[in-house]
């Protein structure tokens, strides 16, 4: 089992992700996007960062790297794909997930701890959590506000494809618990299948016990699912 962590020009959370996966005993390697996806890839992590300086739109240029066509094919074949932060922006730009992450309501870069509520506990990325469990995970983004047309969001909600919502410590959602103005407090969504997910907060920064809370471990354990 090897998770390919795809590095683009400007990725900066690839090594954090590698260390976090290594801590969980999940084999992972960093792959330069121009080198293509290794044959033995059993999972794909799109890491955070500022690919191509966030120019044009965050994630827009990385999403057009030829490797992303291979990632879409792998996802369609059932290979688990997780996009984190800039990786979530890339995932949406590449059409793996719907909607877009755009400029925070504050118009500022925000780096803080937030609380998340797992809206599903029957997906590979959340089966480690109890229903209604609140987890603490850091965010670090300038363009994390989830945006999508009202009709499409209603459909996504009907299809149960919202994976995480921002909430307070008790699990309540609301403007005070939503750090960036994301529509309906959405912090992460599923793709066409439950094995594809993106989220704006950083589970890999909430995995190593020496660094702080370890609530993000459950998300990364999604790569262990059969
Ligand atoms: N930590 C990150 O991945 C940064 C996300 C992104 N490039 C932003 O600032 O919106």
Automatic annotation (TrEMBL):
Subcellular location: Cytoplasm
Pathway: Purine metabolism; IMP biosynthesis via de novo pathway; 5-amino-1-(5-phospho-D-ribosyl)imidazole from N(2)-formyl-N(1)-(5-phospho-D-ribosyl)glycinamide: step 1/2
Lineage: Archaea, Methanobacteriati, Methanobacteriota, Stenosarchaea group, Halobacteria
PANTHER family reported for this sequence: PHOSPHORIBOSYLFORMYLGLYCINAMIDINE SYNTHASE SUBUNIT PURQ
Example of a GO biological process term: 'de novo' IMP biosynthetic process
Subunit record text: Part of the FGAM synthase complex composed of 1 PurL, 1 PurQ and 2 PurS subunits.
Keyword Glycoprotein among record annotations: no
Function in brief: Part of the phosphoribosylformylglycinamidine synthase complex involved in the purines biosynthetic pathway. Catalyzes the ATP-dependent conversion of formylglycinamide ribonucleotide (FGAR) and glutamine to yield formylglycinamidine ribonucleotide (FGAM) and glutamate. The FGAM synthase complex is composed of three subunits. PurQ produces an ammonia molecule by converting glutamine to glutamate. PurL transfers the ammonia molecule to FGAR to form FGAM in an ATP-dependent manner.
Protein name as annotated: Phosphoribosylformylglycinamidine synthase subunit PurQ
GO MF terms held by the record: ATP binding; glutaminase activity; phosphoribosylformylglycinamidine synthase activity
Gene: purQ
Residue numbers spanned by region Disordered: 203-226
One GO CC annotation: cytoplasm
EC number: 6.3.5.3, 3.5.1.2
Catalytic reactions of this protein: N(2)-formyl-N(1)-(5-phospho-beta-D-ribosyl)glycinamide + L-glutamine + ATP + H2O = 2-formamido-N(1)-(5-O-phospho-beta-D-ribosyl)acetamidine + L-glutamate + ADP + phosphate + H(+); L-glutamine + H2O = L-glutamate + NH4(+)
Organism: Halosolutus amylolyticus
Primary site of residence: cytoplasm
């Amino acid at each position: 089992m090897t998770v390919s962590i795809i590095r683009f020009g400007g990725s900066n959370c690839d090594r954090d992700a590698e260390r976090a996966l290594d801590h969980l005993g999940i084999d992972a390697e960093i792959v330069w996007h121009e080198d293509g996806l290794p044959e033995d890839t059993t999972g794909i992590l799109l890491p955070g960062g500022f690919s191509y300086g966030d120019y044009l739109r965050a994630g827009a240029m990385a999403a057009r790297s030829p490797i992303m066509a291979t990632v879409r094919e792998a996802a369609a074949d059932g290979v688990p794909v997780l996009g984190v932060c800039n990786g979530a922006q890339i995932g949406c730009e590449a059409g793996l997930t719907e909607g877009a992450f755009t400029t925070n309501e504050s118009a500022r870069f925000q780096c803080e701890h937030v609380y998340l509520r797992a809206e599903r506990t029957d997906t590979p990325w959340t089966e480690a959590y109890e229903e209604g469990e609140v987890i603490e995970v850091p965010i670090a983004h300038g363009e994390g506000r989830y945006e999508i047309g009202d009709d499409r969001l209603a459909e996504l909600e009907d299809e149960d494809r919202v994976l995480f919502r921002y909430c307070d410590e008790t699990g309540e959602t609301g403007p005070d618990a939503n750090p960036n103005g994301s529509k309906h407090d959405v912090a992460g969504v599923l793709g066409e299948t439950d094995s594809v997910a993106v989220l704006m907060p950083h589970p890999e920064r909430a995995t190593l016990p020496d660094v702080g809370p370890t609530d993000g471990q459950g998300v990364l354990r999604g790569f262990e699912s059969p």
